[in-house]
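[retry 2/3] Phosphoglycerate dehydrogenase: previous attempt timed out, resubmitting with same input.
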Amino acid sequence: MKVLISDPIAKEGIEILKNSGFEVVEKTGMPPEELIKTIPDFDAIIVRSATKVTKEVIEAGKKLKVIGRAGVGLDNVDAEAAKAKGIKVVNTPAATSISVAELALGMMLSAARMIPQATASTRAGKWEKKRFHGTELFGKTLGIIGIGRIGSELAKRAKALGMDVIAYDPYVKSSDFGKIVDFDTLLKNSDFISLHIPKTKETAHLLDKSAFDKMKDGVIIVNCARGGVVDEDALYDALVSGKVKVACLDVFEVEPAKEHKLFSLEQVILTPHIGAQTDEGQQRAGVQIAELVRDALKG
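[retry 2/3] Phosphoglycerate dehydrogenase: success.
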């Protein structure tokens, strides 16, 4: 059987597939039309974020039995089309949890001490010691929206720094890592708010103008989850007004994000969707997805 690797994965994962007797073809960076022409020969495809496994790709995959996504979500896979054709879809939700949680924590620290802004100022030859007056995380309240794998990892680290952790998650009744509260309570009481939820009909623009209006003045917002769970226009207004002190964004409604009015604000810390981009996270994702695809094909 043949496995197509259309986005790069860890070499350890590729070796697992080869050692299991599969023919592995690495062909990355294909445009959609080339993927549609290529997929008919393959029994499985493994992707990360770049490749979009659309309905058209799935329909062209005459031999396709398994779609593997090395990562948390399935945003780039038409899972309904796959289900309709009896194709198994697997992913690795736990592989990069620590990587994303550590980025969120790093953003919180960066925001609290204005590290990116101070770096830019110092590099410009300024010495603005009095300007960069920060705040401690110790004793502050972190509100986590979505206390699943990533949210729990962040909560553990925040508590180790002496933060109080509260969480809103409609699917969780209790947690060892924070007190479960309702949405409004979280908004009203948090000094930092970090989102760790998928984008769905229910969560689209979960943080909108009405949500920002309920928050403490000077709140710090971190989104390492999915673009679109925060209303970016409402966030911009909240930053300009001072309601939000700093926003830290790893994800955006439209990606790649090349230009946006949020980019004009110094109090916004930006990264290009790198939450899962660590050596360790990608190694785990590559190995886990290879094992899942192997087991599904040998099933």
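[retry 2/3] Phosphoglycerate dehydrogenase: The chain is about 35% helix and 15% strand.
[retry 2/3] clearing retry counter.
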